[in-house]
Write a structure and sequence with these properties.
Blueprint: H1 2-11, H2 15-20, H3 41-82, H4 88-97, H5 107-116, H6 123-127, H7 134-144, H8 149-157, H9 162-173, H10 175-191, H11 194-199, H12 208-219, H13 223-254
Length: 259
Amino acid sequence: MLPLLYMVATSLKTYGETVTRVSSNPFHPFFWPKWNNLQFVNYLVSWQEGIGSYFRNSVIISTVTTLGILVTSIPAAYAFSKLRFWGKNTLFTILLLTLMIPETVLTIPNYLTVAALGWIDSLAALTVPFMAGAFYIFLLRQFFSQIPNALLESARIDGATNFRTMISISIPLVKGPLFTISFLGFTGAWNALQWPLVVTLTETWRPLTVGLLKFMSEAGPESQLRMAGAAIALLPIVLVYIVAQKQITDAITQSGVKG
């Protein structure tokens, strides 16, 4: 927690205080700003200096990516768990093998694909390549596998299709894992830096991570503004985790329960 406290404390200081009131000890008064002179205006200045437009881009990119992950991972995980089709186990093994491929190795192939589709410097380039992931499918499959087959068979006897069974029965029973992969997907998209730098040429769709990198260099020695920008970038992740904390904890707890 110490780096987070230091970030918040510095973001509320004046420029003079960042030079004269410096301490790495949270019990020292110089670690904190003067309580009668808190500079909340630093957040407004950081927002107006360009953080705001990048923030909007990150919200859109992360939301679209997360929705894409859910749309692709839920049917795939359900199929691998509850449906019978030729080569299911082989395909699932191949899917798991992709987890061993470092993300950096995929940068050039993904870039060539995106460039061939004409998606450079667009929302599609920042979202579509990450709308599916082997880990998300694997995690959901493990939870779908815990749903009793008898429950699904009774629904099919009543005339429900596989799609209706998945939507009406299976998905409500795995809300915790869905919150978990949503949080992981949102966080991954929000914190992405290397890929946005590669596929964006203008400021139109550059996310907050790229904007923060630029803002850090422009702010120069004014560390109070840099810390305010970093706090703005961190806030959505903290809020999302607070909202989904109970569901994520339940999902982790249930992952060790069978039957």
